[in-house]
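User: quick one, sequence for these tokens?
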């Protein structure tokens, strides 16, 4: 894609990544890709905001060079030092020897740690401003969204918030970068939710603090480091992030996420009775087979629904390993305060429920019930499963 003008003399100069399979080496993006958004301001002094991943340095340099002579570039604004944002830094340092690199104190320290860059750098502080001529930049310190050095850059005259990872999303930008040009905005919002739960959710408290900081400034455009640039309805993505962040401590939406794993389908057959009971109660539900579904796609449902049903067998006196993996990722991301129930089969020894109880205690889940059965579920077991599922559904509707 060619550079795109966002406002007079303010340009998107990002690149698209459709070749990386796992973002951060963890989260699958092979079906959607991702953008590395960077922005250039041309003025009496020129400023580049954010960079790109190292593998896309050549594309990135071409983008910027189409608009400005890099040897004359004045400033490079480092909102975030994570290498998907800063990977082009070493090459840019060579091509733009006059440019001063600006960032929060921790970012400048990381610049040395990651790239051994120590010269022509400057520490900026929260609420500090920088005049480029017609444009004034204001730096807003937003730590732990989602690294400790992260900041946002605000252009006062145009009311543009370059928000770094906040308000970002998965998804390559297929020919258009703006929300009002996107043909599937609902799909883009789902990409944003998955990105939020995968990348930012563990720092939801900090997200809310950052939103409080930026709310002091009128915002006409939200320009994140990944995903769409929101110019028609910038408040939409801010409100979505605010809503998602509140789910870290407040009740989520009525609904049940069902996670199941099964070896010989004894647990799965019994689970089907639970699904019937939840559906009959009129409660939305989503079902995920943890043996085949990546936790990346499970997290959005876990994060946004109040209820959780874990259905899996005991495996060697413990919990089915794929379920342990899924729940451990949920624990890392801070999926707390759920209404939770467990069911599953055991053969020669139990043990899965004890592992489940550990997650309940650590994540402050409210246990609704549990049903274990030896081998296949008998009639009394099925009745217990149905009763437990109904109780879970009713509790979710009550909040």
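Assistant:
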């Amino acid at each position: 894609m060619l550079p795109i003008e966002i406002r007079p003399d303010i340009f998107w100069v990002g690149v698209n990544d459709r070749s990386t399979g796992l973002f951060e080496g963890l989260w699958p993006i092979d079906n959607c890709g991702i953008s590395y958004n960077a922005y250039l301001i041309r003025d009496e002094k020129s400023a580049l905001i954010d960079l790109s991943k190292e593998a896309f340095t050549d594309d990135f340099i071409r983008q910027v060079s189409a608009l400005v002579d890099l040897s004359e570039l004045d400033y490079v604004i480092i909102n975030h030092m994570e290498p998907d944002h800063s990977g082009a830094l070493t090459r840019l340092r060579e091509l733009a020897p006059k440019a001063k690199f600006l960032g929060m104190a921790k970012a400048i320290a990381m610049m040395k740690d990651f790239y051994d860059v120590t010269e022509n750098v400057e520490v900026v502080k929260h609420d500090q401003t920088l005049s480029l001529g017609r444009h004034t930049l204001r730096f807003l310190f937003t730590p732990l969204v989602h690294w400790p050095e992260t900041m946002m850059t605000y252009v006062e005259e145009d009311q543009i918030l370059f928000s770094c990872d906040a308000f970002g999303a998965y998804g390559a930008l297929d020919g258009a970068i703006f929300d009002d040009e996107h043909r599937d905005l609902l799909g883009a919002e789902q990409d944003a939710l998955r990105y939020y739960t995968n990348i930012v959710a563990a720092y939801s408290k900090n997200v809310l603090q950052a939103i409080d900081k930026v709310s002091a400034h009128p915002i006409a455009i939200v320009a994140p480091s990944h995903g769409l640039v929101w110019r028609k309805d910038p408040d939409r993505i801010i409100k979505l992030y605010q809503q998602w962040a509140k789910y870290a401590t407040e009740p989520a939406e009525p609904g049940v996420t069902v996670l199941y794993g099964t070896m010989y389908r004894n647990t799965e057959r019994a689970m089907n009775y639970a699904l019937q009971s939840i559906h009959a109660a009129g409660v939305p539900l989503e079902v995920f087979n943890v043996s085949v579904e990546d936790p990346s796609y499970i997290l959005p449902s876990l994060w946004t629904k109040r209820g959780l049903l874990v259905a899996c067998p005991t495996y060697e006196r413990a919990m089915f390993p794929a379920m342990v993996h899924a729940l451990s990722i949920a624990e890392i991301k801070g999926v707390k305060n759920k209404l939770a129930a467990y069911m599953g089969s055991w053969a020669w020894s139990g043990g899965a429920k004890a592992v489940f109880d550990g997650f309940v205690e650590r994540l402050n889940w409210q246990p609704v019930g549990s049903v274990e059965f030896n081998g296949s579920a008998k009639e009394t077991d099925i009745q217990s499963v149905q009763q437990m599922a109904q109780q879970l559904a009713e509790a979710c509707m009550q909040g």
